[in-house]
Fold:
Amino acid sequence: MSEKELGKKWDRCLADGAIKLGTGLGLGIVFSVLFFKRHTWPISFGSGTGLGMAYANCQNDLRSFYLLHRSDKEQ
Amino acid sequence: MLRACLRGANATARKNCGRTPLTNLQHCRHYTAGESSGGGGAAKVVAAGLLTVGGGIGGTVLYAKWDHKFRAAVENNVPYSDWLLGLALGPASQDNGLPVKKQVETAQPPSMMDKPVKASKAKSEKKAKEAAESPIPTQSIEEASAEASHIISAMGEVQSVPAPCDTEGKAAKEEECKECHGHEATPATAVVHPDTESPALTEPLKERPVEEVTARLAQQDQEEQDTLASVSASLEDSLASSAKATLQAIGAQEAALQAIARHTHKLKEAMEAEVPPEEKSAQWKELEATIAERTSAVTDAETALLKANEALNSLKSVIDQSKGLKVSAVRPLVLAAEENLHNMVVDLDKVVTKVQSAESEAKVVSQYSELVNEAKQQFQREVTSLTPEIHANWKSLTGKLSADDLNALIAHAHRRIDQLNRELAEQRVREQIHIEASLEQQRLEDQKALEKAVSTALQHYKEDARLEQERKLSELREVMEAEMRTQLRRQAAAHQDHVQDVLKVQEQELRADAEQVLSSKLLEQETRYRQLSQEQLDNFTLDVNTAYARLKGVEEAIDSHVVAEEEARKAHLLWLSVEALNYTLKTADAEVPTVPLEGAAQAVRDSCRDNDFAMALASALPEESLQRGVYSEASLRARFNSLRSLARRVALIDETHNSLYQYFLSYLQAALLFEDKQEAPPSQLSSEDLDPFRLLAYASYCLEHGDLELAAKLMNQLRGEARRVAEDWLTEARLTLETKQVVSLLSAYANAVGLGTTQAP
Structure:
């Protein structure tokens, strides 16, 4: 069902976003705790990175259809 | 024309001159002169040119009239010259070469004809035949005698000889001529009577049948024989009578002659012999008897002569009559009769002359005897006067006489002698006169006798000559007849040979004809028979064929019935299977596709094995529908609703606009934009209508109204992400539509077939 795909993509996006955000946050926290003396910027940095990565992934996923992949080119 | 030009030129010149009469006379003159000279010059040039042209044409025409080759050359080279020359001279004589040939050609056959004609003519001139030359006879040789008559008349004609002779050359034609002349040998009887043939010759073209000719010839023969017999009989009669009479006359004449001779002899005896008186008287009696005899004999002879003459005259008349009959066979008889007549006449004349000479002699002798008697009597008287006792018979008196008597006797004798001498002298004196007179008399008599003799002799000779001529003529005629007969026999033989040949050839021809006719008839009969038998066969075959055909027809009808029923059954099966298929389509629930159509499709396929159309249709069912089944319209409709909102949400997303921000915007648009739930789609989409929201409204409307197809079409116009999310729905819709289409076609077809195969009652 092609109409369900978008929903699936959104699900993936959200899931991915959540994961990345959490992971980023976690890592940020970790790094902030560990390496950066409990500054908040690694946390925001991490979460931001996580969020950003999630955003990019989501966008890429949503766009994936319209992009030509190198494999297609090579074909 | 030249003059007209000249006149025109002068007139114009004068007009020009006339326009300015007073002024410029010199100019006028000049003008006129100039113009006239100019005009005259032009006219002269024109005239000269025309003259040259006319002269050239006239010269050409004249020369063409004289020389035909030139004319031909001109006609060939110059167009329309033939028309002109024809107009001027009349049509060209183009048959210069042909008359020579024609003459040569026409000369040849006549030359060929002339030679044999000449040859035949020469031949005809050579042979002196009595046949007349008449025109060309017919070519049929049917009867020999008719042919003979024809060929007699065809003396001069050569080419149309009817026999199948060679016609190769002159020699052959001469042969023909010979044969032709040979053919002139008619039967001897026909030619022997040329006068009877003359009526036949005068009509040569008319054929007479054999019987008529032979009858006529027999009749002629008969007539001839009759006349001959009559003539010969008459001639014989007259000859016999005349011969008898002549003989009688001759006998009588002979008798008369003898009587005269006897009488003369007797007289002589009586005179000379000195017989005693008794004997003398006896003698004189005998003499008288003989005289009487003589006279009677002479009269008898005369009467007999008269009779003989009469008979001879009658014979002559008969001969003349028979001569007048003009029958040639009589001629020898006539000739013989004439000869006999002549001989008789001659004999008669001879005898008559003999008698006459005897008579004359007798006269002489009688005269002499009379004289002697007279003298004797004188002497006797003298002697008796002297010596009365002594008788006249003084020869026997030698013993009886005395000397005186003797002297007296001697004196008497002397006196007698003197007297006689004196008489003698007198006689001698008158001798000349007497001699002359007697000579004269004798001459006259002689002349008369001569004339008579000459005339009779002439007559006799004439008669002789005529008879000789006649005899010669008859001989010649006989000879000629014989010759003619031989020639005719030869001709007849040749003719017979020819006729035999011709008959043979004819026989062959006729046989060939008859055989041909026979064979043709046989062939005809055979072909007829064959035809009939063939016809019978054909008829039989035809009947059999018709029966067979009918049988076949019946069988075919039955088969077609069977076939039709089979077809009907199949159609029914198909229809049933299609109905089943149709029914399976209805088994779709919401969200659940139908049962896979494979089974029903298989059933349909099975039921339409030999129906290409149905097979094609059955195999046109999409695989998905077969394997998986199709969604119903209702499910699609339901699905569409969810699809619609999604499509609304991603309306802005396409290839270029597909970032998350766009997505956000698109969601925003969808939230804020309101359109009709359902909008009737226009009949034609414009570019405005390609907006996704509008399309979705149209599609929704269509769906609500059951038009899945149009909805699908409209959804097909979506572009970008909306299109992508609607892709599956479109596919499903397409599948459903396809399947429905195929099924509807199949059902329609099955219905149609079913209707078609339903037999009308």
Summary: The two ends of chain A are 27 Å apart (CA to CA).
